[in-house]
RNA sequence: CGGGGUGUGGCGCAGUUGGCUAGCGCGCAGCGUUUGGGACGCUGAGGUCGGAGGUUCAAAUCCUCUCACCCCGACCA
């Protein structure tokens, strides 16, 4: 490709809109163009890289036994209502209707469709297992698109779905795809960390995320400094401060003027915050919920949402709290009736807590569970923090940020049961098919690669997904000898099968070198009167400072080595 | 949804106590001189100042409404 003809120009200045590096670089190199918040056009350079990523994914999915197919973006809303996931996605689902007023949605993912499809063709254990995948545009109306391609509303995703007759089959496929994913990220030049994850709106049991570790990421990861434990903060567990064992004492009411927050109460009564109980109020699908948790621990709303099995959850506002006759600042689970109480598992083993008394400026000492109050639900709804102890080995937990570039789920049977996707086993007994699903966001993967492969000058493409392999950079193109030599070399390299970006512009050396660095093509080949005089060309890798002079007759051999070594 | 910010040629910005024909840099077009890390000179094209309404002799500038985009938070009573 000749740069003079390439659609899309490089930009010297950083667009004001862009904050993250990958976003800035993709705009400056002319890879993407923003159409609306979280919606982009992909220009030729970006598309070439995206296609390379897609092909790597295809190769690995096929090698793992996957079969590619294609399903529509436009889907009947009814199908989503059947599984109830229209509510799970909530406002994230783009909905529309056709001329006959039939309700449709733009698919945020394709489990419903594939499950229906499989139920049409698969009826016997002999038809299982199946690994089906698609690379498709998906739509999610994200509350806040951000960071260029990091979080968008319209995106290309590879999604593979596994269908098995038993748990063992699911586990095998899960591991097989997990390995294939490792291969994909390695080939794309992207180091990743696998973390335990919450399955969110997709649903299901186990799930693991593939994280590219970078501060630009919008996911928080809790990991152990010692063992292999790593989890998304949405799901992470930790061991909290242990309480001393003591005998339960009788309830005692104390006046606590001007002490409403945990910090104030704790200071006023001279008890550590982990010896207090905090009351937090939520509205879960319209129902008021009283959450009790130890004073030093925060509520993890994702966990709470899962425990409550609700689709919409928010903190109760002042009016909602008052309406439920709760005394803010002195609320207590003791003697509360007709309100659902959820207790964190930190609460039940504790002894002699300080809690509110449901009277203004009054607290209770020596509150004990279950003597003084009971909970409708007791579960782990606690947030894990860096500095706390690892749930596996007890060593210190740390925190970092990452970009979720892949997510795999053991779905189980909830979709197949709802959509009637059953098979007959060898004994003639009917069972729901056991499912798994495995997604990779292609554009986000591309952005993550740039986040991790750049310097102050620009992108440093890994060879496998670079839009071009070689940047042919002749200096002084207004010199007819140079122009002729460059044209000849360009044709030769093309004939040899190289992917060449030919900087055929009559620009100054500075401009050309800077654009070469910005665009980040892995190998730069420079010719000039200086090199031609000694019948040579200069080869420089984008990732290295040094260049080397190579005689023209050895050039293609040398380039082949470099291209194949990555 | 809440909070903060920004909208002025393709990009980055200035101009906003109302006042002449709305500027600057980059980029773009033409000519010339240059040329191993973003050269220089001259000439030129390109803007209903996000949109609507209002105030005024006069609005990029003041008022009202609205739209878009970016950032932060989606949180402890």
What do these coordinates show?
The protein is α+β, with helices and mostly antiparallel strands and 566 residues long. It has 15 helices and 31 strands. 41% of the residues are buried. Strands 3, 7, 8, 9, 10, 11, 12, 21 and 24 form a 9-stranded mixed beta sheet that branches. The protein has a 5-stranded mixed beta sheet with strand order 16-14-15-17-20. Strands 28-27-29-30-31 form a 5-stranded mixed beta sheet, with helices on both faces. The model has no long low-confidence stretch (mean pLDDT 91). The chain is globular. The protein folds into 3 domains: 21-236 and 399-451, 2-Layer Sandwich (BirA Bifunctional Protein, domain 2); 252-379, YbaK/aminoacyl-tRNA synthetase-associated domain (YbaK protein), CATH 3.90.960.10; 468-564, Anticodon-binding domain (Rossmann fold), CATH 3.40.50.800. Helix 1 (21-28) crosses helix 11 and helix 2 (44-63) packs across helix 11. The two termini are 21 Å apart. The structure holds one RNA strand of 77 nucleotides.
Superfamily (CATH H level) name of the largest domain:
Bira Bifunctional Protein, Domain 2
Q: What's the structural domain tally?
A: 3
Strand elements, count: 31
- Kindly state the percentage of residues in helix: 25-40%
Short description:
The chain has 566 residues and is α+β, with helices and mostly antiparallel strands.
What are the main properties of this structure?
BirA Bifunctional Protein, domain 2; Rossmann fold; 3 domains; five-stranded mixed β-sheet; RNA-binding
């Amino acid at each position: 490709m000749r740069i003079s003809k390439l659609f899309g120009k490089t930009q010297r200045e950083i667009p004001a809109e862009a904050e993250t590096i990958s976003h800035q670089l993709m705009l400056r190199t002319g890879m993407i163009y923003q159409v609306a918040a979280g919606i982009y056009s992909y220009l030729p350079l970006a598309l070439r890289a995206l296609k390379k990523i897609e092909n790597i994914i295809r190769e690995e999915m096929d090698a793992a036994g996957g079969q590619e197919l294609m399903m529509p973006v436009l889907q009947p809303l009814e199908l989503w209502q059947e599984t109830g996931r229209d509510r799970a996605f909530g406002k994230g689902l783009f909905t529309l209707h056709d001329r006959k007023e039939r309700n449709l949605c733009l698919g945020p993912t394709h489990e419903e469709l594939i499950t229906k499809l499989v139920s049409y063709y698969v009826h016997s254990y002999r038809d299982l297992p199946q690994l089906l995948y698609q690379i498709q545009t998906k739509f999610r109306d994200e509350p806040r698109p951000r960071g260029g391609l990091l979080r968008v509303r319209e995106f290309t995703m590879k999604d593979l779905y596994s269908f098995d007759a038993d748990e063992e089959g699911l586990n095998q496929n899960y591991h097989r795809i997990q390995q294939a994913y490792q291969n994909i990220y390695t080939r794309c030049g992207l180091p990743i960390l696998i973390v335990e994850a919450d399955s969110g709106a997709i649903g299901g049991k186990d799930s693991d995320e593939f994280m590219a570790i970078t501060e630009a990421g919008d996911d928080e990861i809790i990991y152990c400094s010692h063992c292999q434990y790593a989890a998304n903060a949405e799901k992470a567990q930790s061991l909290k401060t242990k309480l001393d064992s003591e005998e339960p004492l009788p309830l005692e009411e104390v006046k606590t003027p001007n002490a409403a927050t945990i910090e104030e109460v704790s200071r006023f009564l001279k008890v550590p915050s982990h010896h207090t109980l905090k009351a937090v109020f939520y509205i879960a699908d319209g129902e008021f919920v009283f959450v009790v948790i130890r004073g030093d621990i925060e509520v993890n709303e994702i966990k709470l949402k899962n425990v409550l099995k609700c689709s919409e959850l928010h903190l109760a506002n002042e009016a909602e709290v008052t309406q439920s006759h709760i005394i803010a600042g002195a609320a207590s689970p003791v003697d509360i009736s007709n309100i659902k109480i959820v207790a964190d598992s930190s609460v039940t083993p504790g002894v002699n807590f300080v809690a509110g008394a449901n009277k203004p400026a009054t607290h209770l000492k020596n509150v004990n569970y279950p003597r003084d109050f009971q909970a409708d639900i007791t579960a782990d709804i606690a947030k894990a923090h860096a500095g706390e102890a690892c749930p596996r080995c007890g060593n210190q937990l740390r925190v970092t940020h990452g970009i979720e570039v892949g997510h795999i789920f053991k779905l189980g049977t909830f979709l197949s049961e709802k959509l009637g996707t059953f098979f007959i086993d060898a004994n003639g007994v009917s069972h729901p098919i056991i499912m798994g699903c495995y997604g990779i966001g292609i554009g986000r993967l591309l952005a993550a690669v740039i986040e991790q492969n750049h310097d102050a000058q620009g992108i440093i493409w890994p060879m496998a997904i670079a839009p071009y392999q070689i940047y042919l950079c002749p200096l002084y193109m207004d010199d007819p000898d140079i122009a002729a030599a460059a044209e000849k070399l360009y044709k030769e390299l093309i004939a040899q099968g190289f992917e060449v970006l030919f900087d055929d512009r009559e620009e100054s050396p500075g401009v050309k070198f800077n654009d070469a660095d910005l665009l980040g093509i892995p190998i730069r080949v420079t010719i000039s009167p200086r090199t031609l005089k000694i019948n040579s060309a200069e080869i420089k890798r984008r990732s290295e400072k040094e260049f080397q002079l190579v005689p023209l007759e050895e050039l293609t051999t040398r380039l082949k080595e470099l291209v194949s070594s990555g």
